[in-house]
Design goal:
There is one protein chain. With 505 residues, this protein is of the alpha/beta class. It has one domain: Alkaline Phosphatase, subunit A. It is built from 13 helices and 18 strands. The strands form four sheets. A ten-stranded mixed beta sheet has the order 7-6-5-4-8-1-9-12-2-13, sandwiched between helices. The protein has a four-stranded antiparallel beta sheet with strand order 15-16-17-18, covered by helices on one side. The protein has a two-stranded parallel sheet with strand order 3-14. Helix 6 runs parallel beside helix 9. This is Sulfatase.
Length: 505
């Protein structure tokens, strides 16, 4: 029996190994970073990628969501380029989303499943391919992709970053291995923008460039630039229609999960936000929007530099958030969950030489599409292991063979145990959420007729086949992408956000 089993086992291992999208350290050598050049004669464009933290998709002036919020530079970028109305992340959390952007892979593949999970050491970041193709690359800002250190990362010739979340004022930057402490009046959004533009000024003009400007803003605890502090004092928003249902028992009639009710009174709920130590709901909202103003000005500075240097027509500029943010929907704040305001992100794209501006793109794109898109405009064919697609075709009006579903995963965190593991799938009409490791209610929403995700259709006989089909699609995706195992990570410390069990290990 043993003699028959061993060859079968080894064959299975070989098959799985050949399918694995990650590479060994030997496979990440310079030889293996050489990508095939596209054969249609496309030029190697300069690319600027601007990432913000926790900026939800509709908190921009031109959307009208917050009538008093003014973001003239974002508005201009949208009018001159494209607004990707349905841009999503595959995991709504800082580190997993950022890793998906840089690797072009899902969380269960790159395994940076939370904000502490370390880089496993076998990942390739797409800027490494750009370097091999002759690009000069620069990174400025928040990395926070597993672990807390500020070490330089593969793929960037010039590197400026900080540990973990960093600080809004008096930042400490690691600049190419040398740590520099700035004074109390130095605001990190302005500093990063200034350094990014200096790098552009000093670059080798004979080479194409890729610049990654990664802001700390607008992450909590919100601190605007001093020039913006107080400009929205007294401003409020109309509370979402799902704000009050978990105060009493109405959520049960709507068939919402019990964890949503419980989370209302936690770090990520409107009644006990940030453990009640950081002001009121309205006060936090005001500071969030004021902090966003510095990001808007940063975009204006970058676009102004491109115009002054004659590169604004040819350079691809992408502005994006790493995840969304709830402001009272379902009685929650923050991200992690699969509700629209958490998983949807702002995405603005501009490059007049590629496409005509003023577009609103309806088709669904994800953070795993960023790497394939940038590689295409660099004249490179994406690696086969990347599941995403370049959305250049959408910018040019071609929707051929575009996806009809996006998939989602979030793994329970030791520090924030109030949000369960969830796997989900979204189509243009329906969203299905399936929870793991918790005795609770799954969710199904008709997001065309119920865009606020108020009425859970799970269990309704007339939607049984819809739920069954989406569940099958979800497991098909997990099986095809080797996502049937939860990648556990070693965590031995007191939980940060669990106020009920703060002294436990």
């Amino acid at each position: 029996m043993r003699h028959y089993f061993y060859p079968i086992l080894m064959l299975a291992v070989a098959i799985l190994s050949s399918c694995k999208p990650n590479c060994s350290k030997e496979e990440t050598s310079e030889t293996n970073l050489q990508l095939e050049t596209l054969k249609d004669g496309k030029q190697r464009r300069n690319v600027i990628f601007i990432l913000t933290d926790d900026h939800r998709y509709d908190y921009m002036g031109f959307t009208g969501k917050v009538p008093w919020l003014e973001t003239p530079e974002m508005d201009k970028l949208a009018s001159e380029g494209a607004y990707m109305k349905n841009a999503f992340v595959t995991t709504s959390l800082c580190s997993p989303s950022r890793a998906s952007i840089l690797t072009g892979q899902y969380s269960h593949v790159h395994t940076l499943v939370d904000n502490h999970a370390p880089d496993p050491g076998n990942l390739i970041y797409f800027p490494q391919y750009l370097q091999k193709a002759g690009y000069q690359t620069g990174f400025f800002g928040k990395w926070h992709m597993g672990d807390e250190h500020d070490d330089p990362r593969p793929g960037f010739d010039h590197w400026e970053s900080f540990k973990g979340q960093g600080d809004y004022y008096a930042p400490n930057l690691n600049i190419n291995g040398e740590r520099v402490q700035y004074d109390d009046d130095t605001y990190v959004t302005d500093l990063l923008t200034e350094h990014a533009l200096e790098w552009l000024d000093e670059r080798d003009q004979e080479k194409p460039f890729f610049m990654y400007l990664s802001h700390k803003a607008v992450h909590a605890l919100f601190k605007p630039a001093k020039r913006h502090d107080g400009v929205y004092d007294g401003k409020t928003i109309e509370k979402p229609s799902t704000y009050t249902q978990t105060i009493g028992e109405e959520y049960k009639d709507l068939k919402w999960p019990e964890w949503v009710k419980q989370q209302r009174h936690s770090w990520h709920g409107v009644d006990y936000m940030y453990h009640g130590t950081n002001g009121t709901f309205d006060g936090n909202l005001q500071k969030y929007c004021e902090t966003l103003l510095g990001v808007d000005e940063s975009i204006g500075s970058v676009m102004g530099w491109l115009r002054e240097n004659g590169l604004d027509e040819s350079t691809l500029v992408i502005y994006m958030g790493d995840n969304g943010f709830s402001w009272g929907e379902h009685g929650l704040i923050d991200k992690r969950h699969f509700y629209e305001e958490s998983v949807k992100v702002p995405m603005l794209v501009r490059c007049p030489e590629i496409f005509k501006g003023g577009k609103n793109i309806e088709r669904m794109v994800q953070n795993v599409d960023v790497a394939p898109t940038i590689l295409e405009v660099a004249g490179l064919k994406k690696p086969d292991y990347m599941p995403g697609k370049s959305f250049v075709q959408l910018l040019q009006g071609d929707e051929t063979d575009w996806r009809t579903r996006v998939y989602y995963e979030y793994f329970w965190e030791y520090d924030f145990p109030m949000t369960p593991t969830v796997f989900g799938v979204r189509t243009d009409q329906y969203k299905y959420m399936r929870y793991q490791g918790i005795w609770d209610q799954n969710e199904l929403y008709d997001i065309i007729n119920d865009p606020e995700e108020k009425y859970n259709l799970m269990g309704n006989p007339e939607y049984a086949e819809v739920a069954k089909q989406l569940a099958s699609d979800l497991y098909g995706w997990l099986e095809e992408t080797q996502g049937m195992n939860i990648p556990l990570k070693r965590t031995v410390k007191n939980p940060y956000g669990d106020y009920r069990h703060s002294d436990q290990y």
